[in-house]
Amino acid sequence: MPSFVSFKDLKITFKPHPITNDLQLSKDEAAVKQAVINLIMTVPGERPFQSAIGSELNRLLFEQFDYGVAAQIETEIKSTINNFEPRVNINSIDVTLDYDANAFAVHLEYDIRGRTDMPNSIDFLLQRTQ
Q1: Contact indicator for 113, 104 with CB cutoff of 8 Å
Q2: Residue 8, pLDDT score
Q3: CA distances from 1 to 5, 6, 87, 111, 120 (A)
Q4: DSSP labels for 19-64?
Q5: Maximum C-alpha span of the chain
Q6: Which residues contact 44 (CB under 8 A, 6 or more apart)?
Q7: Which residues, listed in sequence order, are joined to residue 10 by a DSSP beta bridge?
Q8: Is there a contact between 36 and 85 (Cβ–Cβ < 8 Å)?
Q9: What is the pTM of this model?
Q10: pLDDT tens figures, 22-58
Q11: The CATH number of 8-127 is which of 3.30.450.20, 3.10.450.40, 3.40.50.720, 3.40.50.620?
Q12: Please, which residues bridge with residue 105 across strands?
């Protein structure tokens, strides 16, 4: 039996397994990573009966493209994860301006509570959509 906590979640694609035709699962680090990304990208009020869950990143993306907004994005990500994802301890968040893509590049490093292995990281771009 493993000495660490195990996590499982449905894969967001909802594609059935090619042999069993069951929904596929994300496990452990992949499940937590998927949950963190989903949480950050969720708009408050989007989840039925859980209107407080989510972040205000979509609103911040339409503010002026500068370092002040990058700092607000960093604060919003940190606050959202600390409030709604108890499995994660944030080590660092780095939000930089990507002028070529007109986007904010986010690098998030975190530990999964109850785990002693290496830290995990997520890299993604936050970009305005119309």
Answers
A1: no
A2: 57
A3: 10, 11, 20, 22, 23
A4: TT-SBPEEEHHHHHHHHHHHHHHPPTT-STT-TT-S-SHHHHTTS-
A5: 52
A6: 51, 52, 53, 54, 55, 56
A7: 25
A8: yes
A9: 0.79
A10: 665 666 677 788 888 889 988 998 888 988 889 999 8
A11: 3.10.450.40
A12: 96, 125
Query: 104 pLDDT band (50/70/90 cuts)?
Result: very high
> Could you tell me the two tokens for 82?
């600390």
The amino acid present at 36, given as its one-letter code, is: V
CA distance 114 to 6: 9
Locate 12 and state its tokens. 């967001």
**Least reliable range by pLDDT among 21-30, 53-62, 71-80:** 21-30
Of 94, 121, 123, nearest to 110 by C-alpha is 121
